[in-house]
User: Fold these one by one.
Assistant:
Number 1:
Amino acid sequence: MNRVFSLLTLMFALVLSGCGYNTIQTTDEQVKAAWAEVLNQYQRRADLVPNLVNVVKAEANFEQETLTQVVEARSKATSIQATPELINDPEAFNKFQQAQGELSGALSRLLLITENYPNLKANQGFRDLQTQLEGTENRITVARNRYIKSVQDYNVTVRSFPNNLTAMVMGYAVKPNFTVENEAEISRPPTVDFGTK
């Protein structure tokens, strides 16, 4: 009886090793690690926003509406629970991505408007925060690119035969990835008009 059990265990192990189970586990863990880095960088950005807003508030005549948009976008972006399950739910992932995009847009508008305030541009604290924010945006881009690559590897693994059979039996599905919201708009070449004299 023990010999039959040992033989069945060995056969089961051989079947699992040839069906991509270990590869699926490896790529799934790589996706989780890459996602954790994305979240880490988004949190870093969210932590910088209150300091940036406080420095900008010191400029007495700064556009209050712009500051309000930044604060609201940060609040929305940080209110979404970024759990590990988020990367398995395309709808929740899309909401998270939209909220982060809104914060990016609000921060871009804030930094663009600050160009009109020489006192603010001369403020060392503001310049330091702006540099940290720019560095964080670069880190977010790198982390997102790593995540995109990890998801691509994982999705190819779970969609390839015979791994797809194992993935189906074990409940592993294709994971959502970052997308470009305005894909049609950015695929058109820009219009350049230098005007006529």
Note: The chain has eight helices and no strands.
Number 2:
Amino acid sequence: MLDYHTQIKQCKRLWSAFDLPSKRGELSALQKQSADPGLWNNPDNARQIMQQVTILGEQIQEWDDLTRRISDAIELAQLDDSSLLDDITAEVVDIENRTTRLDLEAMLSGEHSRGNAILTLHAGAGGVDSQDFAGMLLRMYMRWSERRGFASEIIDQSAGEEAGIKSVTVTIDGPYAFGYLRAERGVHRLVRISPFDSANRRHTSFTMVEALPDIDAVAEITINAKDLNIDTFRAQGAGGQHMQKNDTAVRITHIPTGIVVQCQNQRSQSQNRENAMKVLRGKLYEAQEIQRQKELDDLRGDYVKAEWGSQIRSYILHPYQLVKDHRTQHEVGNTQSVLDGDLDELMETFLRSGL
């Protein structure tokens, strides 16, 4: 009726990789720690333990649910009832999709991969076309987030002079948001007939995409208040109009590193300050990781500095339609679908490549 052998082998391979018995043992040990009356004497450590308990519990529950569904589907198939064929087929397809997703998420083992993300876009070379392209990418990522049921919020935005945006920062909250969006980090290139060129010439424009982890655990990144220079100013709307009469926008400069972040989309100064600190923690964490990697690469003798302009992906709208990831050489012919947020194929190809 239906051949389940391939599916069962795939799931067994994944169960082996996930090492469910080990995860159960780890969860049991963490639960014992969480029951310790003195746990909250160290609030930062307690929060990390409780977070791990939640994450492991959800992962184990998901695998247990998948095991049950496969067992139920096999039992129904063994009944050899043709009236159940459509229902069983639909269930098998859904199980296969879920298995594929779990397979990919099992690979996203990096620190913070399971957590939320902060996405920042910066229009680059290309003038108005670049700013318009940044706006197109913002819409693309918001649509991708919506497709996955993630929550997204623009926390800072600088409008373009004629169209699009100069820069924008968005928080994206959902399981593995950072794990997936790290596949988008780098320079993106657009080739098209410019709608802003009266001569209808082909233009090339660039936008830089940054993906940072949303780090809530203050213990991971220590920020000394004396190292911060905090400025407030009036938030700007489109066309330079004031959104607020008061100085609600916040700009924070981390003096030791020179990192500058700002947020202005909330109506209160305290909310903008909180969001700005969230972005700063992400940037400081990323800077630490880059420095660690540089030191390792220097020891290996193969460190190569990343330069602006080395695009990771091209969106070609003229003279033909193609989206190409230059890291994996993977191509998608339906450019409109990609720009509408259908990014999973490109993301997953990159993440599975191990690059």
Note: The longest helix spans residues 43-78.
Number 3:
Amino acid sequence: MTGIASANTPQQLANFFSVLKEVDASIVQDFLPKNWFDAFGLLKSYLQKLKAPKKVIFFDELPWIDTPRSNFLSALEHFWNAWASARPDIILVVCGSAASWMISKLINNRGGLYNRVTQRIRLLPFTLHETENFFLNKQIKLDRYQILQLYMAFGGIPFYLSEIRAGRSAFQEIDRLAFSKNGMLVAEYENLYRSLFNHPERHITIIETLAKKNKGLSREEIVTMSAINNGGGLTTVLRELEESGFISRSYPYGKKIRDSIYRLTDQYSLFYLKFIKDQKQSGSGSWLNRIDNPVWRAWSGYAYENICLQHIDALKRTLGISGVYTEESSWLDKDRSVQIDLLIDRRDHVINLCEVKFTQKPFSLTKAYKEELETKLFTFKEETQTRKSVFPTLITTYGLKENIHSLGFIQNTITMDGLFEPG
């Protein structure tokens, strides 16, 4: 059974009864069950008649079924604890996109379903490798730079990626989906958060606060900039956003958990806030006209950093250290003037100091930029007093154009192809 969005209890019960009648031919009455306890009683009677060695009950969009004052969850708890859990032939699978409900009412249930979850599946977005395979399966032939453009704007969400049409460029498709009058992603932002979270106002406020600061914010900075109270409610909202993949939390090198930094890592939310919300320009060619302006350059650099952080396993495979234990972190010096976005701290006594650059051609290291990297390297070593070897590592789109500044200094170079490696 699949729950119905915004339906009331009688409508959800009617839906349940309709589905049950489709599979149980013995049901002849047309009157609906009075409540969920009666409904689960009918389900129990049906299951008792089945002779199959395994019986799977599947509820999709479970949070939608649990309408206010419906007692659905209590009925489900009673059905499972009083009868189904003792049956080795019955498997209950539940699914829901409303992360706050799934976490608070099911995963962290303190009532009748406490400790009843035997397997948890967190459905993650496609990686770049999976996205490429998805397009190949749909006969969509795009090179990796084009796929990367789509991924930077929409992320690895299959629902969004399934809208991409064959025979069109990434720029054309971004125009169509995000800037045309009836584009699917023009109004998706508000609907997205309201479908996932009850009372999503604080969730949206935190997302929009993080979107203003590319380098991420501490909890205290979020409180200051958003005016949200620093209490248990904020903890819950941050956990729900992190669990749902909208934000990520990193632990600065050498710091404690309380010093963690939060970043907006949902690609579509960042794209929407930078280019769609409150923007006057729309229609054909809107996206192409933005390419390479200062806002686009800032966004593309941050979006590419996010992708790198989301593809650590692919980066490790490209570096040849997939079998080495590592810890990933960021770092900020005590004067907050030097920031390193990605450190890969390896058990083999090496730290990769990663610099991420999104370019439209091979990257050329200038004298000034080399001096900036040398300052980062020196400051990091001086303040942390690390005894490990530190390898300056460049993650670019098309690689490094060797010159006198890069020779002997950059130890590892990773192109976008490395991000497409299977993790």
Note: The two ends are 34 Å apart (CA to CA).
